[in-house]
Amino acid sequence: MQKIRILLIAFLLVVPNAVIVSAQSATQAPDASSTEQRKTSEPYTGDLSVFESPGREDRLQINRVMNILGISSGKAVADIGAGSGWFTVRAAKRVGHAGFVYAIDINPEAIRYMTERVQKEQIENVKAILSKPDDPLLPVKSVDAVLLLKTYHEVAHPITLLRNLRAALRPGAKVGVIDRNGNGENHGVGRDVVIREAKEAGYRLVQQYDFVKADNMDYFLVFTAAE
Q1: Which of 6, 16, 110, 177 lies at a 20 to 30 A Cα distance from 224?
Q2: What is the count of structural domains for the chain?
Q3: How is the chain split among helix, strand and coil, in percent rounded to 5?
Q4: Is residue 126 within 8 Å of residue 101, measured between CB atoms?
Q5: Inside any domain, residue 19
């Protein structure tokens, strides 16, 4: 009987401590769902001339894209993920001498390439900016329109980038995203993912299109800053 009493007392002493330890472990364990980062593609660092493929202007219907974004004479535009400057030079011609284009990229080689290109083509209304991966480093209230052309799937911290972009937007500014459906790491990202992340960053979707390519893989989303 004495032995049973001793075992019972020992059990009562051990079990509460085990419960406490277990509870503490559960509290201290990180929430995987809150720390997990979605997959993204590696930023392109190869031959920039690949973006100059013949017929790309027609395939993407880039003039229609600029019309939808309100890019016209005198406007200020940001080309985020400018690469070779393919869109930059077209936007620069559209806005004219009274307008301005910021060519944004995180790749120093792209900045060098674009700087040499605009000098060679005598385009005076373009400024190339070597940005941070999560901040375009644009001046406050500096742009009327922004385009991320086949770039969003490479952005490692898209919500932070979009939040940092907001200060650069003038009233009524439009932000366009052209990308292709994918899983993030295959040079594409689902449109629903982009819409969800933009909403979290403080934007609202105002228009969406599928005309940018005929393969039904590409999409064009237009956002404005939510009030």
Answers
A1: 110
A2: 1
A3: 40, 25, 35
A4: yes
A5: no
Instruction: Identify which of 141, 143, 200 has the alpha carbon closest to the alpha carbon of residue 174.
Output: 143
Please indicate, yes or no, if residue 189 is contained in any of the structural domains: yes
Residue with tokens 């599928």: 210
* Domain CATH number, residue 221: 3.40.50.150
Could you tell me if residue 85 is inside a domain?
yes
pTM of the model: 0.79
| Pairing between β-strand 76-80 and β-strand 143-149 as defined by DSSP bridges | parallel
Report the side by side order of strands in the sheet with 169-180.
Answer: 126-130, 100-105, 76-80, 143-149, 169-180, 218-225, 203-209
Domain that holds residue 95: 58-225
C-alpha–C-alpha distance, residues 116 and 190, integer Å: 35
**CA 54 to centroid of chain Cα atoms:** 26
Task: Give, as one character, the DSSP assignment of residue 189.
Answer: B
Cβ neighbours around 173 below 10 Å, total: 24
| pLDDT tens per residue, range 155-213 | 989 999 999 999 999 999 999 999 998 876 667 899 999 999 999 999 999 999 998 87
